[in-house]
Amino acid sequence: MPNQIKIFKKINSYNKSINVSSDKSLSIRAVLLASQAVGVSTISNILESEDVLNAIKSIKKLGIECKKIGNQYKILGYGLNSFDIKKKTTIYAGNSGTFARLILGLLVRTKKIVKLTGDKSLSKRDFSRITEPLKEFGVNIKSKNNSLPIEILGSEFLKPINYSETRGSAQCKSAVMLAALNTPGITKIKAVSSRDHTEKMFEHLKIPIKIESKKKFDLIEVQGLNQFDAFDYIVPGDISSSAFFIVLTILSNNSKIRIKNVNINKSRIGIITILKKMNCKIRFYNTKIYKGEKTADIIVESSRNIKGINCPVYLNSAAIDEFLVIFLIAAKAKGVSNFKNLGELNTKESPRLNISVSFLKMLGVRVDRNKNDIKIYGNPNLKISKTLHMKNYLKDHRVFMMSCIAALSFIENGEVIIEDKDSINTSFPSFLKILKKLGAVIK
Ligand code: S3P
């Protein structure tokens, strides 16, 4: 089966209502916390993508019972540190940085060695950001070059740590919070603000946690060794998957979309803040609170008169997975846009800052780069009128989806060939189906 698609023309105008795939961060956290709870947790509307399915397979390998009944996953936990590991066990995280980093936090007291492996992209990513703090708890960790495969052997003599998270990485913060669950005493974290789903789930589960939010960082204290009960959770839609349709609609003519029931946690909606500052028409409707998390329908309309932005650095973490498509809006804006301090983008599934710069240049957009800062010279008449071939050597799902959105927004009389269609199975298996429902012609 060819793993490549071709797009020959822009999408026609549409006015539709869609559901996107369920939130990946929440799905993975719900599975991991259910594995440590006491009793049967029921998780509905979980994201059934490779990243989450690898998380489920892995906790099963670690001795947790997990069954799918209808649209629900039932996970039977026996409490903290109740993984049943009889001999050295290997688990496979596939492409998922989130699962790989968070599960390490839950393995700090295991009595047998667990080996963690991943695919080619994940095996290139840095794990020292996780293994360094975990070693401070007293865990034994072996890895070559700070990357996967990693072998971890827990300790019975863990001690709480004081940890300072400076990158704005929710994965680092969450891995330490999960390690704190199995550690006696109080673990203290000072973290640059980043997505706070783990904090919200801890609060909902009544795990002893204190959070003090300062202007630029949060102070978090987690008291360890407190059992918590099983729970029910219904996972809402993913803002990061919605982002592709938000941007497509803004860039298309006379179109409108309603994306239903999406998580709009404040720490995730950097894209909305940024695009509104650029003059784009986006509204929330039907806002609700569910277990501490905000959800809403997102209504987006085509926008003319998009203007450039000096993107405030404090929004970087809240928009971290969305910059690939935010840059497409900047490319079509009137005026110059500045984005700063985006080094973290190069630590993702593929080096996304480098890839974005090359991609924009391939589209004919002027981009000036100074290390981790970029300046995009917008062109309201931006068009693709030649054949472009988008290779995706690390099979990055978001690079594939961004390339589709660029093609459907900008093609005038060219064609865009995009490799690695299967990469969408990582986070958003129904992506192409939804595009076709909106009227996209994709071969
Ligand atoms: C995630 C955090 C972010 C994000 C990733 C999901 C999470 O990574 O890029 O897709 O669920 O915690 P970092 O924490 O490394 O920035």
Annotation keywords:
alpha+beta, four-stranded mixed beta sheet, binds shikimate-3-phosphate, globular, 443 residues, 12 helices
Short description:
The chain has 443 residues and is α+β, with helices and mostly antiparallel strands. It folds into two domains: 220 residues, UDP-n-acetylglucosamine1-carboxyvinyl-transferase, Chain; 203 residues, UDP-n-acetylglucosamine1-carboxyvinyl-transferase, Chain (Alpha-beta prism). It has twelve helices and 22 strands.
Q: Would you mind describing this structure in some detail?
A:
The protein is of the alpha+beta class and 443 residues long. It folds into two domains: 4-21 and 236-437, Alpha-beta prism (UDP-n-acetylglucosamine1-carboxyvinyl-transferase, Chain); 24-226, UDP-n-acetylglucosamine1-carboxyvinyl-transferase, Chain (Alpha-beta prism). 28% of the residues lie in helices and 28% in strands. It is built from twelve helices and 22 strands. The strands form six sheets. A four-stranded mixed beta sheet has the order 2-15-17-16. A four-stranded mixed beta sheet has the order 4-5-3-14, with helices on one face. Helix 1 (24-34) runs parallel beside helix 3 (97-106), helix 4 runs parallel beside helix 5 (170-181) and helix 9 packs parallel to helix 10 (352-362). The relative contact order is 0.14. It binds shikimate-3-phosphate (S3P). The site of shikimate-3-phosphate (S3P) has 11 residues, from helix 5.
Spatial arrangement of strands, main beta sheet: 2-15-17-16
Secondary structure tally: strands = 22
Can you count the helices?
12
Overall pLDDT: 97
Helix/strand-derived class? Answer: alpha+beta
Instruction: Please tell me the total number of domains.
Output: 2
Stretches where pLDDT is under 50 for at least 5 consecutive residues are none
Distance between the termini: 13 Å
Ligand species:
shikimate-3-phosphate
Portion in beta strands:
25-35%
Taking the sheet with the most strands, its summary is: 4 strands, mixed
Principal-axes shape call: globular
Q: Under the CATH scheme, which class of the largest domain?
A: Alpha Beta
The CATH topology label of the largest domain is: UDP-n-acetylglucosamine1-carboxyvinyl-transferase, Chain
Which CATH-level-2 architecture of the largest domain? Alpha-beta prism
